Amino acid sequence: MSRFAQIEVPRRAFIRLLTKVAREHALPFDPLIPDETTVAAMREARTGNLPRVTSIEALKTALNADD
Fold this sequence. Notes:
Elements: H1 3-24, H2 36-47, H3 56-63
């Protein structure tokens, strides 16, 4: 597959998306309604129940803990 063909497919999809948005004056999804996971994370953050780290290394360790 040529480099041009690799770029052409996403480009055409993006143009179709923008055309739909312009025609309908709306996004094809609602960006202002969070899903359940996001709502749960927001509630956890509001209660202050968040993990804390004191260094970059501790942050890396915490982020990679589930891997």
